[in-house]
Design goal:
Layout lengths: L1 H19 L16 H15 L8 H9 L1 H4 L4 H13 L6 H22 L3 H10 L11 H13 L1 H4 L4 H12 L5 H10 L1 H4 L5 H16 L2 H7 L17 H15 L2 H4 L3 H19 L8 H7 L2 H9 L5 H27 L23 H4 L2 H10 L4
Helix pairs in contact: 1-2, 1-7, 2-6, 6-7, 6-8, 7-19, 8-10, 10-11, 13-17, 15-17, 17-18, 17-19
């Protein structure tokens, strides 16, 4: 827990320094200037913290197996497959660790560029990305979905701000080549654009959330999953429920924003983001019996990191803005800490996924084949995710 807390504290301080000072480092070579020193230090820390994580994440053994063995790698999406083979050849002397480092760099770089396009409050959005466990911490496990998510997040700019559907579809194809599940997101935004570009009464949203609970109680999600084509149907055979507390927190937070939406949902971008958050909550409820399937909601949940600064700065006075920022960051810090606590105190037949945090640079290194932990593989076989 302490390592994660210190990580958040260090990044928060750097982001605050970047916001409040003019700390720059100018290096003139061929007319290239490097400035904004604090923000780049923050980004480097974020990349390295994820990139040098060692034996961490519930999909760690699968990515390690893919890096080591072609018979595992061939199951992955084409672009991820190709880049993994390239990393194998180069690997910078880091062996399989190079895979996690490169994709950490790519994911955070794409995210940062997207945040700068969307909002002047990108520092706060970046901090929210770190504090929402389903986003940053989850990329420790779902590497492919992590990069697909930020690609689609970047691409959403071309449906909401500078509308260019063809360009969005290019981002959609790129994301699909990293993770096939992204096709559901692309089709949702393209086919139901009218739904996203308007808001509805609180009664409509409340009815829909109630319907999502009804679908969950009737276990309709299992039949939906089993009817899906290809490897997606396997998720219908592995039941691991989301905790009741998490479900309550996610839904209460949506209703907290719902009853204030007229205050801050003003533009096409805001409408898309708010309805994305609604859809994330709906999907989270429907598939709450299958914790791994709730990852589909994360594609839409990322809208939260842009929407929350919009909400905070919709207040007229600086006092209210600061008050809401402190309250909401406290809420997110609680969620972040609770996720670490849950992992550390998990009772069940699986290894811890986040705690203790191990760093490749400060751990006695092992060969890749030694790192291929049998207990993780047995756990995956037990819940049916691998055979």
């Amino acid at each position: 827990m302490l390592v994660y807390t210190l990580f958040i504290l260090a990044v928060s301080i750097l982001l605050y320094v970047d916001y409040t000072t003019n700390l720059k480092f100018t290096y003139n070579v061929n007319n290239v200037k490097i400035n904004r020193l604090a923000i780049y230090f923050a980004l480097i820390i974020i990349m390295l913290f994820a990139g040098f994580r060692y034996e961490i994440g519930y999909d760690y053994p699968k990515y390690l197996a893919g890096f080591l063995f072609d018979n595992e790698l061939r199951h992955w999406e084409p672009l991820f497959n190709f880049l993994t083979r390239v990393i194998r050849e180069i690997n910078f002397g880091l062996d399989s660790q190079a895979l996690f480092l490169v994709f950490s760099f790519l994911t955070i770089t794409i995210l940062y560029q997207a945040l700068k396009k969307y909002s002047q409050h990108y520092r706060l959005s970046l901090l929210l990305y770190l504090l929402i466990p389903a986003l940053y911490l989850n990329t420790f496990s779902v590497v492919r979905q992590g990069i697909a998510m930020v690609i689609l997040f970047y691409g959403l700019y071309y449906l909401t701000v500078k509308v260019n559907k063809r360009r969005y579809l290019l981002f959609g194809v790129l994301a699909f080549l990293f993770h096939y599940s992204s096709i559901f997101v692309v089709l949702t935004y393209v086919l139901f654009g009218r739904f996203f570009n308007r808001t509805y009464s609180w009664m409509v949203y409340t009815f829909a959330i109630g319907l999502s609970f009804a679908l969950s109680l009737t276990h309709a999600s299992k039949y939906i999953l089993l009817s899906l084509p290809g490897k997606f149907s396997i998720y219908g055979t592995s039941e691991m429920e989301v905790s009741i507390l998490k479900i309550v927190i996610v839904n209460l937070f949506f209703f907290f924003l719902l009853f204030q939406k007229n205050q801050f949902v003003k533009t096409r971008l805001h409408r898309y983001l708010f309805n994305s958050l609604f859809l994330a909550t709906f999907l989270f409820n429907v598939f709450s019996d299958f914790i791994y399937v709730t990852r589909i909601a994360q594609y839409f949940m990322i809208a939260e990191i842009i929407l929350l600064p919009v909400y905070i700065y919709s207040f007229k006075t600086r006092l209210m803005q600061k008050t809401m920022m402190i309250l909401l960051l406290s809420y997110y810090m609680f969620n972040f800490s609770y996720a670490i606590y849950r992992d550390e105190h998990y009772i069940g037949g699986r290894p811890h996924f986040l705690v203790p945090y191990e760093n490749y640079l400060f751990t006695e290194t092992k060969s890749d084949k030694q790192k291929y932990q049998q207990q993780w593989i047995e756990f995956y076989q037990q819940i049916g995710l691998i055979k």
